[in-house]
Each structure stands twice: as C-alpha cells, then as structure tokens.
Specification:
8-stranded mixed β-sheet; alpha/beta; about 20% strand; about 40% helix; about 270 residues
C-alpha cells in the first residue's frame, strides 16, 4: 500500500513539473548553438544609475527585486520592464530610464527575473534562462503586483526572453494591465493560456529571426483573432535582438521606429 502511494506521489510530482513550463517558454533555445551565437555579449556601457533597487516579498516565501524609477508626484501608473536573457544588466536599466523619461508620470520597475544573476556570456545566459522556473517567474511578477497594489494601472514591456514574460506578466495582472509590448518574445500558443489576457498587445517581431519566426508571429495573430484579443503585430526587416543597441546586430532605423510605436502604444493606454 505504501509503495502504491509512493508511486502515485511521484507521478503527481512529475506531472506538476511538466506543467511548470508554458508554451511561451524560451528555454528550449538555451542549448541551441546558433541561438547562442546570435546573441553577442553586450558591449560595455558607461552607466550612471538614476534609480535604485527595491525589494518586495514574493508569494513563494522568498523576496524579489527591481530597478525602480519613481516620479516625484504620487502615481497609480506603472510600467514593468522585463529583461533579455542576459539578466537585469546595465543595458536594461538604461532602457528603463529612457522609458521613464518618455512616459511622464509613470513609475518604472525593471524586474530582476534572475534574482541577482547577470550573464557575461551566451553560455551563461542560456544556463540562467533554463534554471529559472515558471513558478519562480510568476512569483516575482505577483510579488511586484502586490507591492504596487490592486488599484495600480500597469503596462509591461520586454525583449526576447522578456518579450514572452511581458505577455505572461500582463496575463497575470488581469484587469490591472492596460498595455503589453513584446519584442521578439515567444508568445503563448494556445487559447487556454491566452484566455485571461485583458490588455491589448503590441507585438514587435523580426522577419530575419530564425527562432521567433514570422510564422510564430502570424500564428499568434491568428490565435488572438480567434479568441477575441486585441493584438497589433509589426514585423521589421531585421534580425533577432535588433532593438538592443549593445548588440552588433542592432538595427538603428528599425529600433527607432519600433521604440516610437511602443512608447505611443503605452502612452495611449496607460492614462
């Protein structure tokens, strides 16, 4: 009898582990040598931070952190910025600062999804991305939501790994989420996962992307249409991570256009 119970318990644990990943998970690419080669180690930046790191409790009994930029006057409008697969590095903090300057009166929180770890090589980034569990990622987002309170209005933005998590964070935020911007991140791929989404989505994709391909973007657009979600897709003639100025494949023209679209999208909806 005890043996049977043990077997059942193990089976439940395995099923739970299988269910801990979502279709938006990008760790499937972590060991892909071509994917790693497409991500050059970010160039160093001369960064003088204007924000500060803040801590918050997470529902898994741990704590989370974020790079925070808070306006002088009290606000109920927040933007969650979600890192690339490198971690919360200086490039992402700079992006958060630029968005803070562009979005007048909006508090910006760049979530640390790797709990302090920042990759220096593509191999390290792949390991960190694989090691971060769906459960922990959701706990970090929920902890940030709890910190800002149930009356806050939220927008989300992220790139690559963070693009997929921008969508997931908006789904977790429910009615509080007013806008979601995802740059070349893996979207959810089934109706059940997309069903709770309340926010309109701006999807920025790259036609030359060999992983988050135009077919992936088209499939997401079709799923959104079939489920009655508001999704606006823009595909640029550029490569994966084209919006990252610390990436040698940075496409300045496409990035400027995409960033202008993203800022206008958020401004129009986060009021």
């Amino acid at each position: 009898m005890h043996t049977k119970l043990f077997v059942v318990a193990i089976a439940v644990m395995l099923l739970s582990a299988c269910g801990s990943k979502k279709s938006a998970d990008m760790s499937q690419f972590a060991d892909d040598a071509q994917f790693q080669a497409a991500h050059h180690t970010p160039e160093a930046t001369a960064f003088q931070p204007k924000g500060e790191m803040v801590q918050f409790d997470t529902p898994d009994g741990q704590s989370g952190s974020a790079y925070a930029l808070i306006p002088e006057h009290a606000t109920d409008r927040y933007l969650f910025v979600i890192q690339e697969w490198w971690g919360l590095n200086d490039h992402i903090k700079q992006e958060a600062e630029q968005l803070f300057d562009a979005l007048d009166g909006v508090a910006v929180l760049a979530l640390d999804m790797y709990d302090g770890k920042v990759a220096g090589t593509p191999e390290e980034a792949g390991k960190y991305m694989q090691a971060m569990s769906q459960v922990r990622g959701e706990a970090i987002v929920r902890g940030a939501l709890a910190m800002i309170g149930k009356d806050a209005k939220i927008a989300t933005i992220g790139w690559c790994f963070g693009g997929g998590w921008s969508l997931q964070a908006s789904i977790l935020a429910g009615e509080q989420s007013k806008a979601c911007v995802m740059y070349y991140g893996m979207p959810v791929q089934n109706a059940k996962e997309l069903a709770p989404l309340k926010a309109p989505v701006l999807g920025v994709f790259a036609k030359q992307d060999g992983w988050i391909t135009p077919e992936v973007a088209d499939k997401f657009a079709a799923l959104a249409k079939a489920t009655g979600k508001q999704v606006e897709i823009h595909q640029f003639d550029a490569d994966h991570a084209f919006a990252n100025p610390s990436n040698p494949k940075h496409n300045a023209t496409a990035a400027a256009e995409a960033n202008a679209l993203a800022q206008a999208f958020i401004k129009a909806r986060l009021q």
